[in-house]
Give the backbone structure.
Amino acid sequence: MADRCRFFRTDAARYDRAFRSIVGKRYDEIEQEIWMEVAETAITLAKNLSLPVGTAQDLAETMRTVMVILFGPEFRSETLRSRRTVR
């Protein structure tokens, strides 16, 4: 897990600049596979830490916590609020 976290903390924009021109059209597909792995790790962390996921707000806070764990304390996020009620 430590090796995964170290990888996930790297700057995605640097990878984009460095590899998109080399990999070409497959870059987005490969990047999606990487983010799918991040998502699996995030789910595992949330479950192992018993983080709340009952409401949209709970889920947003849980994801913020997990992303800081994966990407480090420099990770920043912003919560957007809807003006309409979702039923």
Remarks:
- Helices lie at 2-8, 12-23, 27-48, 56-71.
- The chain has one domain: 2-71.
- Residues 27-48 form the longest helix (22 residues).
